[in-house]
Amino acid sequence: MKRFNKLMSLSALLFAMGLASCTPPAGTSSQPTGTSEPEVDELAVNVFVLSGQSNMEGNTSFKSGSTDLIAQAFEEMGLTDPEILTETGVESVQTSLYCAGYGQLDHNKLDTNTQVNSTNKTERFKGEFVPTKTGLGLNSSKMGPELGMAYALKDEATAEKPIYFIKMASGGSGFEQSGTDYNWPVKDAEGNWPEINMYHTFCKPFIENNLKLIEDEGWHPVIKGWLWHQGESDSATEKIAKYKQRLGDMVELFRTDFAEYAKDQDGENIAFVDGMIYQGSGTAWGAQTSKDMNAVKQEFADSADNNYIVDIYANEEPTAENELKPGNPGGDSMHYNVKSSLRLGMGYAKVILDNNLLD
Fold first, then answer.
1. Which residue of 7, 266, 276, 311 pairs with 294 in a disulfide if CB–CB is 3.0 to 4.6 A?
2. 18-56: per-residue pLDDT in tens?
3. Is the backbone peptide bond immediately before 205 cis, with ω within 30 degrees of 0?
């Protein structure tokens, strides 16, 4: 069974990450190392797409008044150098962002919609890569799991040959939200996709824009994984019953659409890495339906060799060292606190490292 069974103590987690092989230094040509060795494309760079709803988008505040909540969390977690996330940014992990809260997207204003947070401040939908740091969430005062991921992967690339994150997410987005065109796509009775939806209208073209930016830098972008955190908006019994099929249809679509950017130009080589949703008491979407949703997510992760899941609830008795939960400091009743957001990102990174998803 492919799963991240427990959010272990951070010291053990980071030690495990340290065992992963580093990306080879950048070169200017692709040369085989011997007659029996496969040819290595030294211009290839690892790309990960981040999508979903608000806990992927980033709705966690990293400051409270004058308190730096990242530094506070790092001290509690036994980690060093929090300023890499709050000041300089992780140069070896570059992020391009386009996201908005529920109901704030407008497909007629992709470049001019002021409700969107984008790393490109002038041509918002074109995208722009920046060092991964705080402020890449719902707005400039928010953060998401990209921070924990970047921190955990920072030594797997260099500033000269980075790992790239392309993040397009929207709070409140689901497969079956009433009153909006901005659902993740669901086929109609004839098996056709709707013209306007989160994937076709926002996610896919934004990814394409950013792949072009990477190519313009002289690299060959290779999408190694689609990282997903969504499900709160679909945590109702009638929606959960349809969730696995809908998710599967969309993942198949993604792998088909981006096959030319996959390893060996085979879309099945693009990993799909899901994240379970919070299923503790007091959730706005209900603890039992959250458990039911997570069970379906696990089923989908188990259905194919290149599907994975960050299972944050394998430990029935969470401790201060592995618990992920919403609330303060930094979160609210629906959104992860700072420490949990960091740990969630590190969970995605652990799946990436444990399953050799980096070249």
1. 276
2. 434 334 444 444 444 455 667 889 999 999 999 999 999
3. no
Please name the residue that has the structure tokens 């401790």: 319
**What is the CATH classification number for the domain harbouring 280?**
3.40.50.1110
Please check whether residue 209 is in contact with residue 128, taking contact to mean a CB–CB distance below 8 angstroms: no
Could you give the angle at which helices 338-354 and 69-77 cross, rounded to 10 degrees? Answer: 60
CB 148 within 8 A of CB 346: yes
What's the rounded Cα separation, in Å, for the pair 68 and 62?
7
Assess whether the previous peptide bond of 162 is cis (omega < 30° from 0). Answer: no
Query: What is the token pair recorded at 291?
Result: 């458990």
Helix (H, G, I), strand (E, B) or coil at 351: helix
How many separate domains does the chain show? 1
Backbone phi and psi for residue 94, each to the nearest 5 degrees, phi listed first: -105, 140
Reported pTM: 0.90
Q: What is the dihedral of CA 163, 166, 169, 174, to 10 degrees?
A: -90
User: How many beta carbons lie within 10 A of that of residue 201, not counting itself?
Assistant: 18
Q: Which domain holds residue 266?
A: 43-354
Q: 322 and 9 in contact (C-beta within 8 Å)? A: yes
CA atoms of 45 and 161, how far apart (whole Å): 7
Residues in the chain: 359
E strand or H helix that includes residue 289: helix 287-301
Q: Is the pLDDT of residue 7 over 80?
A: no
